[in-house]
Design a protein that fits this description.
With 292 residues, this protein is an alpha/beta fold. Helices cover 50% and strands 10% of the residues.
C-alpha cells in the first residue's frame, strides 16, 4: 500500500501520437485566467494523475507561470495524512469478498490476479471493497504506472511547499474516499467482474486517454469524457459535473485573494460543463497558453 495516495486519485480525473503535428491554439493543458477585477492572472492546468512529473518538468512556459503565482491549488492537499484518512473507506463492514461473490466468481477474480502476480492472494484482500480490488487490477494490468509514484499533481504541491507558496485543496481526502469507495456494493461487484472480463478493452482505453493527454489534444479529450454508458453515468456526473459546479463556486473567491496555479484532472477542464467554459460564463477571460 506504499502508493496509496496515487491509488486513491488514480480515477479522479482520474486517463495520440506524439509525432510533430500542426496544433490548434486551444490544444494546450495550460490556460491563463484574467479579468473580472483580478489583480494578477491565475493559471489552470489539466493533469493526468498517472503521469510522471517529468512531463511538466519539460514545459518551460509552465514552470515560469508556476513561479509567478502566490499559491497552488489541487483537488486535495496530498500530505502524510491522506493514507490514514482514506483507509476507512477501503474496507467493508460485516461483509467479505468471498461472501459477496459466488465461488465461481471469487475464483475468477483470484485466478486473474494470480496470473498477473502469483504473490498476491485474494484471501489477503477479503475485507477490501470491490472498487479497491478494481484499482489493484488496473495497476496489475498497467505495470508502467508503478513508475509514476512521483506524479505530476504531487510535483506542483511539493514545489509550493518548497518555495513558501500557499497550498490549497478544493476538497478533502474523506470526500474523495467516499466518492471512490462508498458506492453501492452490488454495483461495485458487477464493475469488478466487468473490468476483468473486459480487461483488454480497458487497457486500450487507458492507453488512448494517456496518449490524448500527452498530445494535449483537447478535442479528443472532450470527446473521450463525453462517452458514458448507463452503468457509469451517475458516477461520472458526480466525478466531473457536480464537482466542477462546487469548484466554480470556490475558485473566484480564492483568485481574488491570491494569484493561483490550479492543477486538477484534465477531464475537469473540457466540455460544456468544464471549468474553462464555466469560468468564461462567470465573466473571466481564459486564454490558452502554449507550453513549449
Amino acid at each position: 500500500m506504499k502508493n496509496i495516495k496515487l491509488l486513491m486519485i488514480a480515477f479522479l480525473g482520474l486517463t495520440l501520437s506524439l509525432n510533430a503535428q500542426t496544433k490548434k491554439a486551444t490544444n494546450t493543458l495550460l490556460w491563463e485566467i484574467s479579468g473580472k477585477g483580478l489583480k494578477k492572472p491565475s493559471y489552470l492546468f489539466g493533469t493526468h494523475h498517472l503521469t510522471s512529473r517529468k512531463f511538466a518538468d519539460t514545459m518551460k512556459v509552465l514552470q515560469e507561470k508556476l513561479k509567478s503565482v502566490d499559491g497552488v491549488v489541487g483537488e486535495i492537499v496530498m500530505d502524510s495524512t491522506v493514507q490514514q484518512r482514506m483507509a476507512p473507506f477501503l474496507v467493508m463492514k460485516n461483509n467479505t469478498l468471498d461472501s459477496l461473490y459466488t465461488k465461481a466468481e471469487y475464483k475468477e477474480i483470484d485466478d486473474y490476479i494470480k496470473a498477473k502476480n502469483p504473490d498476491i492472494d485474494l484471501k489477503e484482500l477479503n475485507t477490501f471493497k470491490p472498487a479497491m480490488v478494481g484499482i489493484l487490477i488496473m495497476l496489475l494490468d498497467n505495470p508502467e504506472i508503478k513508475d509514476t509514484a512521483d506524479g505530476v499533481d504531487d510535483s506542483f504541491q511539493k514545489y509550493a511547499k518548497s518555495n513558501a507558496k500557499s497550498l490549497y485543496g478544493l476538497e478533502t481526502a474523506e470526500y474523495q474516499g467516499a466518492l471512490l469507495f462508498d458506492g453501492d456494493l452490488q454495483k461495485q461487484k458487477k464493475a469488478l467482474l466487468k473490468s476483468i472480463r473486459e480487461s483488454d478493452k480497458n487497457k486500450l482505453k487507458i492507453k488512448e486517454l494517456k496518449n490524448y493527454y500527452l498530445a494535449q489534444d483537447m478535442d479528443k479529450l472532450t470527446n473521450f469524457f463525453k462517452i458514458q454508458d448507463e452503468e457509469t453515468k451517475e458516477f461520472m456526473t458526480e466525478l466531473l459535473k457536480n464537482r466542477n459546479k462546487r469548484w466554480l463556486d470556490q475558485l473566484p473567491v480564492m483568485m481574488q485573494k491570491e494569484s493561483l496555479f490550479i492543477a486538477v484532472g484534465a477531464g475537469h477542464l473540457v466540455g460544456d460543463e468544464g471549468l474553462i467554459k464555466g469560468l468564461i460564463a462567470q465573466g473571466y477571460t481564459l486564454k490558452p497558453v502554449a507550453t513549449h
